[in-house]
Amino acid sequence: MTSSKPIRNVVFDMGGVLMNFDGPYFASLFTQTPEDARLLNDALFGTTMWSLLDSGTISHETMRRYAEHHLPERLHASLHECILHWPEHSAPIEATNDLAIRLHNEGYGIYLLSNASTRIMEQLGHAPALPHLDGYLVSAMERLMKPDPAVYQLLCTRYDLDPAECLFVDDNLDNCIGAEVAGMRSFHFTREPGHDAEALEACVRELS
User: Fold this and answer.
1) Strands, DSSP E only, in the chain?
2) Residue 206 and residue 119: Cα distance in Å, rounded?
């Protein structure tokens, strides 16, 4: 049953919502040909090991060694540079950052819940909304990942939030469903008409 309580808090995902995350693009910055970029992306960002890194199950060193094993030696230097510097090339999604700041200034609680590694601040540090966050929770630091309802419940417990008063925003539909199982309402953000920052703001206003 949908809650009738007004929304008082908006919980944002990071990659794809507040910050761009584009593995093929990042890989292309550290390689010379499209084929090499594909190889690098597949070995680093495009593998299930990346999710293990975000879950805190493996270390960055293990991730590096795994990717090296799946790349020709001539691309090892490119891999190392990409691992070190890709967060610098993750650009803010301005519309959602602007909205988060505006909502914070209006008195809404603004939180972040991200499946990300322990290096999250190297990426999130570029987000204009960062100083306006009232709290955040990162999967690798908690050993819990979306869409497990437990991770949303942990966020609410840590910051004394009522899930029924929270709107969760994510570009992954499964993560939105996980939030709803945990008692939140959700908005599937895709940057397409009807699922963009303008529609998100309209949703917040409607539910408040």
Assistant:
1) 9-12, 109-114, 135-138, 166-170, 185-188
2) 36
Task: Check whether the bond before 147 is cis (ω within 30° of 0).
Answer: yes
Q: Which residues of the chain have pLDDT under 50?
A: 1
Is residue 118 helix, strand or coil? Answer: coil
CA dist., res. 187 & res. 169, Å (int): 5
Total length of the chain: 208
Q: What is the pLDDT of residues 119-163, one digit of tens each?
A: 999 999 999 999 999 999 999 999 999 999 999 999 999 999 999
Residue 73 amino acid letter: E
Q: For residue 13, give both structure tokens.
A: 């995902």
CB neighbour list of residue 13: distance below 8 Å, 6 or more residues apart: 112, 113, 114, 146, 168, 169, 170, 171, 172, 175, 189
| Separation between Cα atoms, residue 203 and residue 196, nearest integer Å | 11
**pTM of the shown model:** 0.94
